[in-house]
From TrEMBL:
Signal peptide: none annotated. Keywords: Repeat, WD repeat. WD repeats lie at residues 91-132, 230-271. It comes from Russula ochroleuca. InterPro entries: WD40/YVTN_repeat-like_dom_sf, WD40_PAC1, WD40_repeat_dom_sf, WD40_rpt. Pfam families: WD40 (PF00400). This is WD40 repeat-like protein.
Length: 331
């Protein structure tokens, strides 16, 4: 049986940094990459619809609505991308690379995290786009938002959890449950918590509610590991994404695999066939019908590995029952 998956034509030339589907259509996919581009793909036509060139590697991109996207990267500039007119506007600058760009519907703002140790809020319609800047103790590596919460992964394995309506101090500060460097972060679709992943093949599932009864539910587990000729191989987990309806999640690793997990019952629901390169980025469509997979070199083997790395590839998979928890009901 062939798997319901298509390879997208004309992928980026260098490593894929982030993927996001349009909030209005599972046919439109935004892809940022280290080749200094953000590309918009039409999945139905299997073609690149638009390409936005930047001055340096793009580390993160996000939609705010169906016709506007935002991007940031190594040149420290936040850009607004008008997807229909194909215009690009510089909204402002950080003092160092922008590592993460998110849209907060709760704050109706673009939120950027940077290696300059700040998180900034932006309103593209305002005369001065930057609305506020918030100092953090360390570089921002990853961020995600759900509802009124903003979760920030800092360089030292610390996590700051903010309420976007009250950014003067974090609601909670937590140390990672994982011993090694954070490689991915994603918030649960139901707003109850988040998952993080590390370079040493582990994922931690965390909950926001600080009560002891809820905190007892948190756990970490090993994954993206293989035993080859009696030798254990441990691979970084590079990407996490929660399904918008079922709240199950996908993980992608440098072992070139993608797995679907039901974190409530602590089980893997499915592992897909291997890809041709490490899985660097993942995204579910807003309707939950598709999963985008970016396979590309993730610098685990340094410059030497980069010399022999294949061109990145992009896949979009049509999803079935494998992403749904057993006994799931909409109630």
């Amino acid at each position: 049986m062939t798997e319901p998956q298509q390879e997208i034509k004309a992928p980026p030339f260098d490593s894929i940094s982030s993927l996001q589907f349009s909030p209005a259509s599972s046919n439109l996919l935004l892809v940022s990459a280290w080749d200094s581009t953000v590309r918009l793909y039409d999945i139905a036509a299997n073609e690149e619809k638009t390409k936005f060139d930047h001055r340096a590697a793009v580390l993160s991109t996000t939609f705010s609505d169906a016709s506007h996207a935002y991007s940031g990267g190594l040149d420290a500039s936040l850009r607004e991308l008008e997807l229909e007119s194909e215009k690009i506007h510089a909204l402002g600058q950080h003092d160092d690379a922008i590592s993460s760009v998110r849209y907060s519907s709760e704050a109706n703002a673009i939120v950027t995290g940077s290696w300059d140790r700040t998180v900034r809020f932006w309103d593209p319609r305002a005369a001065t786009a930057q609305q506020s800047s918030h100092q953090l103790p360390e570089r921002v590596y990853f961020m995600d938002t759900v509802g009124h919460r903003l979760v920030i992964a800092l360089a030292s394995r610390l996590f700051h959890i903010f309420d976007v309506r009250k950014m003067d101090t974090p609601e909670q500060t937590r140390e990672s449950s994982l011993k090694f460097l954070t490689r991915a972060l994603a918030c649960m679709s139901d707003g109850q918590g988040y998952a993080t992943a590390s370079v040493e093949g582990r994922i931690a599932v965390e909950y926001f509610d600080p009560s002891p009864a809820i905190q007892e539910k948190k756990y970490a587990f090993k994954c993206h590991r293989q035993t080859i000729d009696d030798v254990d191989h441990v691979w970084p987990v590079n990407a996490l994404a929660f399904h918008p309806t079922y709240n199950t999640f996908a993980s992608g690793g440098s072992d070139t695999t993608v797995s679907i997990w039901d974190h409530k019952v602590k089980k893997r629901l499915r592992q897909y066939t291997r890809y041709n390169a490490p899985v660097a980025a993942l995204a579910f469509s807003a309707d939950g019908a598709r999963l985008a997979i970016g396979a590309s070199y993730t610098w685990d083997a340094g410059e030497e590995g980069a010399r022999t790395a294949e061109r990145p590839s992009l896949f979009v998979r049509e999803l079935g029952e494998e992403v749904k928890p057993k006994g799931w009901s909409a109630g």
